[in-house]
Write a structure and sequence with these properties.
238 residues; five-stranded parallel β-sheet; tRNA_m1G_MTases_N; transferase; alpha/beta; RNA methyltransferase At5g10620; RlmH-like; Alpha/beta knot
Length: 238
């Protein structure tokens, strides 16, 4: 009785062989069917002979269309740019030691390109309870620091949003205006007053989102530094 019993492993291997043969036969049938369909497609297209390479080329994207257009070259790169003394006027104090550390770092870097300073103006100098009065007093305080020959850039949420390359062009254009100084203005918690808005030569925004004035100051100074590296063709900006 023991001699007539079949080994279970033999049964498993036998089933696997049968399934493998069946799968191979099905694969062969599919290949034949595909070959027939391709031949029909190639012979039915008239009057132009069509090759498989043309069919594949029609399905693949044009590699030239996948390449993005080259970025607009900054016309001021490599040109002599008049470096105006630059200031950032900001309403409010920088209270974060970490932010101040970064501000000091970029301020020192910017001094390699032009005279640069940050002037902090006291927020709500007369401690007014009324928002309108506070805006007016801050407006007067900022205007008292701006000279008649300053070229003024207003940082405002409704201003024009610039790419870094466009910021570089803005700084270069300012040097060709005949102005004696370039002044960037960051407003207080309630924004700029009407006097400064009327005086500004251009209005730009750093972001569509509202930024804390300390963060706005840091982002602005970094972008001014980046702009100069673009104008000088240096490797900071990629």
């Amino acid at each position: 009785m023991m001699r007539n019993m079949r080994n279970p492993e033999d049964s498993v291997f036998s089933n696997l062989k049968e399934r493998k043969k069946k799968l191979a036969a099905e694969t062969l049938e599919v290949e034949k069917s595909l070959r027939i369909e391709i031949e029909v497609c190639l012979t039915d297209v008239k009057p132009f002979p069509v090759s498989m390479s043309l069919i594949l080329a029609a399905r693949l994207p044009n590699p030239k269309k996948c390449i993005p257009p080259p970025a607009k070259e900054n016309k001021y790169i490599g040109e002599a740019v008049r470096a105006l003394p630059t200031r950032v006027l900001t309403v409010g104090k920088t209270r974060s030691p970490g932010v101040q550390l970064l501000l000091d770092e970029y301020t020192e870097k910017l001094k390699c390109y032009s005279s640069f300073e940050v002037l902090q103006i006291r927020s709500n100098p007369k401690k007014a309870q009324d928002t309108t009065v506070q805006i007016r007093e801050e407006d007067i305080a900022v205007m008292s620091t701006i000279g008649s020959s300053d070229w003024v850039v207003l940082l405002d949420e409704h201003g024009n949003e610039l790419r870094s390359e466009e910021m570089a062009e803005l700084i270069a254009r300012a040097g060709n205006t005949g102005a004696s100084r370039l002044s960037f203005c960051i407003g207080g918690p309630y924004g700029h007053g009407p006097l400064l808005r009327e005086r500004a030569n251009v209005s730009v925004r750093l972001s569509s989102m509202v930024l804390n004035h300390q963060i706005a100051l840091l982002v602005l100074i970094e972008q001014i530094y980046r702009a100069w590296t673009i104008l000088k063709g240096q490797k900071y900006h990629h």
